[in-house]
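> example.struct
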């Protein structure tokens, strides 16, 4: 017979709401870097807090300094200084100091700086800064020094984007380029020609100038003019030749007495002594018409000290000049005259025999005190027995004081100036014009210009003409033919052969060098020559620079040339690489030279320069342009700078300036002092939060200190016993953070749940390998595992080198096979913050839900998983389990469901009709059980029940256990923004309720900008309370605040009611201040 059985409500299978479980972060995680230092000549490191010191090298000798870590933090490069006379070298080792190896076989390299991609290192050596390939130590390029300066480059620092190297340049001697073209780049197969034009100096090299002045009464106006203006002229000469020295001598006539016949008033020395002597100079009588400057020339040329050295012009390698200024010719002796000591004209004046004591030495007796013209010329040039020629140039400046007499009346000045390669101002000069005439005469001294080539042995340069003799301040043009001497250089980098053409003047090199620089490449194909001038920028602004190009084929026909710049374009102060190319018959050749723009500055200084790089070279990189950065800075942050270090974003530089550190903003062209007290060795932390530096504090050892980049109070960070700790360098570290949750965390027996793991690299570099070990206990069965990065097995996920900021999402699906509490464990290898490298995720499996084992009864139980869901989130699965407790089969068994109407239609069924209303089971044998399932979408808020009844044909002793029900709870999360209206720049309050407890929710505006990351963690009661910014420059109008799930039980996107953004009445700066 048929019985309708009723079943009691079974509660044993009910489970509570699922909540995510994740390991909490330690309260104060350590920044993901270590700090390397040099401690008493060894490399050590500490953690970011200055703790956990570790030693990485251990040598008493040599000393290890200048640590710099590779971008991935796995290697460290440092300088090894053996001391004594041994040269430094750069060594690369693992970050822990193991496996050291030399960067190259070259000696003298130091101060390594890694490129951002880790393939290159910039190093300093005695020649400047070179770019070296890490894999084999090959030199890829170097930072060329401007050819018009003597510099020492040091402390290279590679920018984060790899496009620039900052470095310190100590400019000890800036000169003015004096050869046109100043630089030449060429590509040729055998030879090419170019030119060099020089303007001879206005004064000979290393001049020693003795002013020889007539001090008789007729010269009074002239002496006054010298007192007024000669000092300025000496200043101009010293500007052109800083090694110039000056002296002053005076002459009168023999009849004025021995003391006044010749006086050395001021020996060769500084100009100030000459100026002082001029002020004290007194004038004499002069006697007859002629004076006795022959004797003065002899005295200057031949007077000696007691040890035999010359009193005047004793220094070798100088240009010796006598400037003779007077208004009368000289007495002289000529044995061919009727009276050898009396000029035949204009009026003979007999001379009294002075006696043998003051007769002219080695002259005929009849000459008395006077000298022959030929003797004086020999005195000034050379005579037999001289160990070296005197080579004294005489500049004659006739002073016009009368019509009857002049310095060259007898042709004496003409003959002597010609014989001494000097100069004569033929027209003479009035007393007022005497100084201008002196300068003109010094400039007119003829000089022989000779070019000399300094090239490798396989390159020769010939000049046409070989030399030229011209006066000062005169242009001379030389044609230069450059030839490759077989076998010649092989093809290599652009400008692989370098020649310097130096110009000598009378065999001497002037204080300000005259040079031309050739960068030559040997290539088969057409010939290409690029010539560039050096250009002055007095105020430091960019200036137009012209250059010329010439390309010809083997027949001499002209070819078109392409360059990466335009002649006449503006170029900044510094050094810009100019690259040009030409093509013939498919063969392209390239030539490179440098455009030099300089700001005239005779002082020595040390600035921070920027070398901009071009990565288009086949062998790595090349220097495209060099700029003087700190030359522009005022306010105590320029012209005494060293040791630059980049901010992580590449927008700022910190560097040493005198006794302080300065931070420069590159885009703004400004710099600010941030800390004083003689700090050194600055280094910017990889997270940009602080700047570390070394500093001595009184008599205490050097410590590593830190200061905020914006300035403020500095504090000590690293102190290691009583040892000096210097040169901080930051080692970037990975910091993997592992979070996870099981959703739901409590399941019915035989139910499934998803374990969600998230691995985030919050560190500064990728780990060598990110491997997640997963342990699933026996009470859970792994159904499947997926990852967004790498690969997984049931026990391990291999994520590879997870980049900084990278995220890997892992999902593990498990089924509960044993009732009880089970813990899924996941872990990563320990890193800088091991507290977030593991997570335990408990999963509770409810006791198996089974119908009551009532003898003789058809019974049913029902279970829901999860019991609590959220609109738009996880589906709800109703499980109906039926048992035949009767001693005979039950037929036509079926389940009739009672489902919440808000969640219909059903999403899926197992063993039921498509609408889930009935679930036909059929016949159940005695003791047999059966299960059917209905899946409901969590599409609406519900707080009710779901269940049903089982019906069958057969004996049923207890109708009460034929019906079962369970509670159903679907929550609708809500977001409220208050107030509902606000201006741009406003921060409204955002609250939420009915969210999954412990979940992480991401908030974002539906319109406009949103703050990032915008995450909020839900409290245990399902609420949150936070603030959310409306940006100043954001859009106005209505918008909603939207919340989406990140970690925890899923829910659909939740939006607030409209929030209206209106235009702010305050401008942003005022609003910020308020």
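> example.seq
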């Amino acid at each position: 017979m048929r019985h309708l059985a009723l079943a009691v409500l079974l509660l044993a299978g009910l489970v509570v709401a699922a909540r995510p479980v994740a390991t909490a972060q330690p309260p104060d995680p350590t920044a993901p870097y270590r700090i390397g230092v040099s401690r008493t000549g060894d490399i050590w490191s500490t953690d970011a807090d200055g703790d956990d010191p570790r030693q990485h090298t251990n040598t008493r000798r040599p000393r290890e300094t200048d640590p710099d870590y590779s971008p991935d933090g796995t290697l460290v490069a440092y300088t090894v200084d053996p001391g004594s006379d041994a040269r430094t070298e750069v060594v690369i080792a693992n970050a822990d100091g193991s496996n050291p190896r030399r960067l190259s076989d070259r000696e003298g390299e130091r101060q390594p700086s890694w490129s951002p991609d880790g393939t290159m290192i910039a190093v300093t050596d005695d020649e400047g800064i070179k770019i070296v390939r890490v894999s084999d130590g090959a030199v890829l390029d170097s930072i060329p020094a401007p050819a018009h300066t003597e510099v020492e480059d040091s402390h290279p620092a590679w920018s984060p984007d790899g496009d620039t190297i900052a470095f310190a340049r100590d400019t000890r001697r800036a000169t003015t380029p004096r050869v046109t073209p100043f630089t030449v780049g060429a590509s040729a197969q055998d030879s090419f020609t170019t030119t060099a034009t020089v303007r001879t100096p206005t004064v000979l090299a290393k001049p020693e100038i003795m002013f020889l002045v007539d001090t008789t009464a007729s010269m009074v106006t002239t002496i006054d003019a010298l007192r007024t203006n000669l000092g300025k002229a000496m200043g101009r000469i010293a500007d052109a030749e800083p090694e110039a020295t000056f002296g002053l001598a005076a002459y009168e006539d023999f009849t004025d007495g021995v003391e006044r016949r010749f006086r050395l008033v001021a020996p060769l020395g500084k100009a100030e002594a000459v100026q002082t002597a001029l002020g004290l100079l007194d004038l004499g009588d002069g006697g007859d018409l002629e004076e006795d400057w022959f004797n003065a020339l002899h005295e200057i040329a031949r007077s000696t000290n007691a040890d035999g050295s010359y009193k005047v012009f004793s220094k070798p390698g100088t240009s010796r000049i006598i400037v003779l200024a007077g208004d009368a010719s000289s007495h002289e002796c000529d044995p061919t005259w009727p009276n050898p000591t009396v000029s035949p004209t204009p009026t003979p004046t007999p001379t009294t025999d002075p006696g043998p004591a003051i007769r002219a030495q080695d002259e005929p007796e009849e000459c008395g005190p006077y000298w022959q013209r030929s003797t004086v010329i020999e005195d000034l040039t050379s005579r037999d027995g001289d160990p070296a020629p005197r080579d004294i140039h005489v500049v004659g400046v006739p002073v016009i004081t009368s019509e009857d007499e002049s310095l060259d009346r007898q042709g004496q000045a003409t003959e002597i100036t010609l014989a001494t390669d000097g100069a004569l101002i033929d027209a003479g000069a009035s007393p007022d014009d005497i100084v201008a005439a002196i300068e003109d005469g010094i400039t007119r001294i003829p000089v022989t210009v000779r070019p000399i080539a300094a090239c490798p042995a396989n390159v020769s340069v010939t000049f046409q003409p070989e030399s030229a003799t011209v006066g000062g301040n005169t242009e001379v043009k030389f044609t230069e033919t450059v030839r490759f001497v077989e076998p010649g250089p092989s093809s290599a980098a652009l400008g692989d052969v370098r020649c310097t053409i130096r110009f000598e003047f009378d065999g001497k090199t002037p204080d300000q060098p005259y040079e031309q620089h050739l960068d030559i490449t040997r290539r088969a194909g057409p010939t290409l020559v690029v010539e560039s001038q050096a250009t002055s920028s007095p105020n430091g602004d960019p200036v137009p620079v012209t250059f010329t190009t010439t390309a010809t084929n083997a027949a001499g026909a002209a070819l078109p040339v392409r360059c990466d710049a335009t002649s006449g374009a503006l170029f900044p102060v510094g050094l810009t690489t100019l690259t040009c190319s030409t093509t013939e018959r498919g063969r392209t050749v390239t030539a490179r030279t440098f455009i030099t723009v300089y700001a005239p500055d005779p002082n020595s200084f040390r600035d921070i320069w920027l070398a901009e790089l071009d990565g288009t070279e086949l062998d790595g990189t090349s220097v495209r342009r060099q700029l003087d950065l700190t030359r522009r800075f005022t306010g105590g942050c320029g012209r005494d700078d060293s040791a630059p270090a980049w901010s992580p974003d590449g927008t700022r530089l910190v560097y040493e300036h005198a006794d302080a550190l300065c931070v420069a903003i590159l885009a703004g062209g400004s710099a600010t002092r941030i800390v004083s007290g003689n700090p050194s060795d600055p280094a910017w932390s990889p997270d940009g939060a602080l700047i570390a530096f070394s500093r001595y504090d009184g008599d205490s050892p050097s410590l590593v200190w830190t200061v905020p980049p914006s300035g403020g109070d500095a504090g000590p960070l690293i102190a290691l016993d009583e040892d000096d700790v210097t040169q901080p360098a930051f080692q970037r570290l990975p910091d993997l953070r592992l979070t996870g949750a099981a959703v739901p965390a409590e399941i019915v027996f035989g139910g499934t749940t998803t374990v969600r793991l998230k691995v985030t690299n919050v560190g500064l570099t990728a780990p060598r390998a990110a491997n997640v070990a997963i342990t699933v206990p026996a009470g859970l069965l792994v159904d499947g595992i997926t990852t967004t990065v790498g690969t997984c097995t049931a026990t391990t996920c291999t994520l590879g080198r997870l980049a900084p900021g990278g995220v890997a999402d892992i999902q593990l699906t498990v089924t509960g096979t044993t009732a009880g509490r089970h813990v899924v464990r996941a872990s990563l290898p320990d890193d800088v913050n091991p507290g977030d490298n593991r997570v335990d995720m408990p999963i509770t499996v409810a006791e198996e839900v089974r119908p009551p084992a009532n003898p003789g009864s058809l019974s049913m139980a029902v279970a829901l998983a999860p019991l609590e869901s959220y609109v738009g989130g996880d589906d709800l699965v109703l499980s109906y389990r039926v048992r035949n407790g009767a001693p005979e089969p039950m037929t036509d068994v079926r389940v009739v469901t009672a489902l919440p109407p808000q969640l219909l239609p059903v999403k899926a069924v197992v063993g039921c009709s498509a609408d889930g209303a009935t679930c036909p089971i059929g016949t159940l044998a005695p003791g047999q059980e059966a299960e059917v399932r209905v899946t409901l979408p969590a599409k609406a808020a519900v707080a009710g029940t779901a269940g049903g009844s089982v019906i069958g044909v057969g004996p049923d002793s207890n109708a009460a256990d034929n019906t079962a029900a369970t509670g159903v709870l679907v929550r609708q999360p809500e977001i409220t923004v208050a107030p509902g209206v606000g201006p741009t720049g406003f921060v409204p309050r955002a609250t939420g309720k009915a969210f999954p407890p412990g979940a992480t929710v991401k908030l974002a505006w539906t319109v406009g900008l949103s703050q990032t990351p915008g995450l909020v963690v839900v409290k245990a009661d399902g609420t949150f309370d936070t603030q959310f910014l409306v940006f100043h420059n954001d859009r106005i109008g209505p918008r909603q605040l939207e919340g989406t799930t990140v970690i925890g039980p899923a829910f659909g996107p939740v939006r607030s009611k409209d929030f209206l953004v209106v235009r702010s009445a305050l401008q942003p700066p005022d609003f910020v201040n308020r």
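> remarks
The domain at 2-16+849-971 is CATH 2.60.40.10 (Immunoglobulin-like).
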